[in-house]
Amino acid sequence: MNSKLQIISGKFHGKKLNLPSDARPTQNRAREGLFNMLASGILEADANYFIWDVFAGSGAIGIEFLSRYPNVSVLFSDVSEDSIKTVRKNLAELGVGKAATTEHKNALDLIQKYGSKADFVFLDPPYDKADLGKQFLEKFIQKAKKDVFVLWEQENSNFIAPSEKWNVIKDKTYGRARFLLMQLKNE
Predict the structure, then answer these.
(1) 116-140 b/e with 16+ CB inside 10 Å = b?
(2) Which of 152, 144, 145, 146 is nearest to 168 (CA)?
């Protein structure tokens, strides 16, 4: 394994992750900043959360959740067979059991099944397919819990604003990546 991608904190701290061939993983520095933000009053350390890592890639974000939050369960979904195989390999090497589920399907097709369960969604579509994020959010909003958090990663130079139905709580940029932490607006 030639990856510099590793788990930042928690029980898997320092563990290196395998990468799929077409990976563009969220960088270690960005993940550290994002998780520090979440730990500062957004997510409770011991709560039971259902996390959905939508375009999972290597699974780094979902695995970071599993490493830091003892009571979470994580769904890893990706349309790429290489990505899902990589996620499964990373989970197996870390000994993650029932707390993780993988789905090799289009995320839009999984909203009906998982949309109402998610407490936190990490949305990181490929940068060259930025419109997938907006499509996901438009369909997801029909099933989403009122208090769900969504963290949407986009390429800063190709920014797409969320619809007016979303309240942007935080807007952070790390290098070429821009992250929007959002919740549904109360209507």
Answers:
(1) eebbbbbbbbeeeeeebbbebbebb
(2) 152
Show the tokens assigned to 12: 């898997």
Closest CA to 111 of 80, 88, 77: 77
Task: Record the pTM.
Answer: 0.95
Q: Identify the residue whose tokens are 């997510």.
A: 43
pLDDT reading at 1 higher than 60: no
Q: Is 75 in contact with 114 (CB distance < 8 Å)?
A: yes
To which residue do tokens 């959740």 refer? 65
Tell me if 156 sits within 8 A of 178, measured CB to CB.
yes
pLDDT in tens, 55-94: 999 999 999 999 999 999 999 999 999 999 999 999 999 9
- DSSP-derived secondary structure for 113-166: HHTTT-SEEEE---GGGTHHHHHHHHHHTTT--TT-EEEEEEEGGG--PPPTTE
Outline where 22-149 has alpha helix (H): 28-39, 60-68, 81-94, 107-114, 131-140
